[in-house]
Amino acid sequence: MAAASGAVRTSRFRALKTARPGAEAGPVVYWMFRDQRVRDNWALIHAVDQANRANVPVAVAFNLFDQFLGARARQLGFMLRGLKQLQRDIEETLNIPFFLFQGDAGETIPNFLEECGATLLVTDFTPLRQIRKCKELISSKVSDRVTIHEMDAHNVVPVWVASDKLEYSAKTFRGKINKLLPEYLIDFPTLELPNRRWDGSCQPIDWDDLIAHAISKGAEVPEVHWCIPGETAALEVLKGKENGFLTKRLKNYSTERNNPLKTHALSGLSPYLHFGQISAQRCALEAKRVRQLHPQAVDTFLEEMIVRRELADNYCFYQLHYDSLKGAWEWAKKSLLEHASDRREHVYTREQLEKAQTADPLWNASQLEMVHHGKMHGYMRMYWAKKILEWTKGPEEALEICIYLNDKYEIDGRDPSGYVGCMWSICGVHDQGWKERPVFGKIRYMNYAGCRRKFDVDGYISYVKRLVGDAKKRKRAEALLDERPQKQSCC
Fold first, then answer.
1. pLDDT for the residue numbered 477
2. Which terminal Cβ of the chain has fewer Cβ within 10 Å, N or C?
3. Class of domain 4-154
4. Distance CA 96, CA 45 (A)
5. What is the per-residue DSSP string for 139-186?
6. What Pfam families does the entry give (predicted)?
7. Which residues have a Cβ under 8 Å from the Cβ of 475 and sit 6 or more positions away?
8. What are the Cα distances from residue 122, in Å, to 33, 42, 432?
9. What is the number of alpha carbons within 13 Å of residue 246 lying toward its C-beta?
10. Residue 71: per-residue pLDDT
11. How far is CA 114 from CA 32, 117, 202, 339, 348, in A?
């Protein structure tokens, strides 16, 4: 069993920097990034626990990047509305101050630590290289009085515990994860109240102005209305009495989740998991509690929630080229390059693909679903990405376009699962070699006829047309509201 450090196992976090011996204890700061929640948050639990043990105050800091990895109104609006609720919850229920910074976290976070005299920085784990580089910069800038703990509160089993190497497939990874679940898939300890109040006050945050600015600046990709942001809404989607996944929709998950017309069978949790508004560990714990009712559905859900999600983090953590042809297995890279110059029946530009201007009505529907709905069905994502490989000049361009569109329009884009999904579809990551054919080489092939055999293609196209029509009507209605003359107040 892993040793414990207060309320949290030492194996769940790692020290990115250790203070010099004998340094006097100062405040604890939790730099929140990937796990934007109060409940079931190992990083917050650890920060408060360490502050109480040292009898020092604790604060939460969040740095708002400028359109991180191309995020637009769709993603930023969802995130900011969730953070607005989080600030209220954390300050009212825990009396922990919430500081919001904007700009380069490599500057804002070290400056804040210096100003408040903090000696412990707790931060979320992410395998994405932009944030990893930022943490390296922060570690080099802070004084030798500061210790930095990186906490994996996103995965059930911390990524460095699950495996110490890049895993080839789910088959090689599954046994390692399942062996560790009895130790790590456990209930969360109670989040204690801080013993010491924070000295001073933080600047008020004009959330409405921030949200309005983000929506205006990123208006090219507008917000969606099918998912309400925040922790409370996330828990409602998971186990709400009216339409919760575990309470009302779970039974058909294993049999209907791959049918693009059966969207009700899906959990709907991916936006909340991406922004950390709900813990994957909480989702897994609650699912286990109802396993007796629907064992096959729960087992399938846990495979996706734990094994597949955490395999994506493993890939991005141990493979720095997680969004490049350089990150493909050698057999796939060789095969793709050998067929890169094969003749294509169609070649489309990025602009044509973005506007869904292809000869394939099924592909066009999947692209429009993503653009207008913010979420493409998982089965269609595979077909969508593989057709991009088929219709572009080579695998490098295909992967670049695939990631660009995914990150721009998917509400859960810019995520390890998204990068691995693109890499699986185009570069064969976590897959095996298949029968060799033109363009694809040994990469798994999908086509229109195969989709027609699996589900009602015409029904899906009609479903997307309705989604697009509803989205356009809503956009026109919102535009009319914005154009209405404002009432003048009288004094």
1. 82
2. C
3. alpha beta
4. 12
5. HHHS-TT-EEEEE--SSSS-HHHH-SS--SSHHHHHHHHHHHHHHHS-
6. DNA_photolyase
7. 222
8. 11, 10, 39
9. 23
10. 84
11. 18, 5, 15, 55, 52
Establish how many alpha carbons lie within 13 A of residue 116's alpha carbon, considering only the half-sphere containing its beta carbon: 28
Query: Where is 59: in which H helix or E strand?
Result: strand 58-64
Among 457, 379, 367, CA closest to 409: 367
Residues 6+ away with beta carbon under 8 Å from 168: 329, 430
Beta bridge partners of 370: none
SS3 456: coil
Q: What would the two tokens of residue 236 be?
A: 């409602």
Q: Is the pLDDT of residue 489 over 60?
A: no
Note the helical H segments in 240-360.
253-256, 270-274, 280-289, 295-302, 309-318, 330-338, 350-354
- Token digits of residue 380: 């269609």
Written as one string, the DSSP assignment of 61-93 is EEEE-SSGGG--HHHHHHHHHHHHHHHHHHHHH
Q: What is the 3-state secondary structure (H, E, C) of 165-177?
A: CCCCCHHHHHHHH
SS3 at position 275: coil
How is the chain split into domains, by residue range? 4-154, 155-191+233-318, 325-465
Q: For 155-191+233-318, which CATH class? A: mainly alpha
User: At 6, is the pLDDT very low, low, confident or very high (cuts 50, 70, 90)?
Assistant: confident
CATH 1.10.579.10 for the 325-465 domain, yes or no: yes
Two tokens, residue 114: 């210096």
Considering only CA atoms, which of 280, 278, 316, 315 is closest in space to residue 301? 280
Q: Is 216 helix (H, G, I), strand (E, B) or coil?
A: helix
Position 157 pLDDT exceeds 50: yes
Q: What is the pLDDT of residues 60-74, one digit of tens each?
A: 999 998 666 678 899
Give the CA distances from residue 241 to residues 37, 228, 236, 263, in Å, rounded to whole numbers and listed in that order: 22, 16, 8, 19
Cβ distance 231 to 39 under 8 Å? yes
Quick one: tokens of 120?
């412990």
DSSP assignments along 336-379, one per residue: HHHTTTSPPS----HHHHHTT-SS-HHHHHHHHHHHHHS---HH
What is the identity of the amino acid at 60? V
Q: How many Å apart are CA 37 and CA 269, to the nearest integer?
A: 14
DSSP state of 437: B
Mean pLDDT to the nearest integer, 101-128: 96
pLDDT of residue 1 exceeding 60, the answer is no
Mapped onto helix, strand or coil, the DSSP state of residue 127 is coil
Distance of CA 32 to the CA centre of its chain: 14
Which amino acid, one-letter code, is at 3? A
How far apart (Å, rounded) are the C-alpha atoms in residues 375 and 409? 8
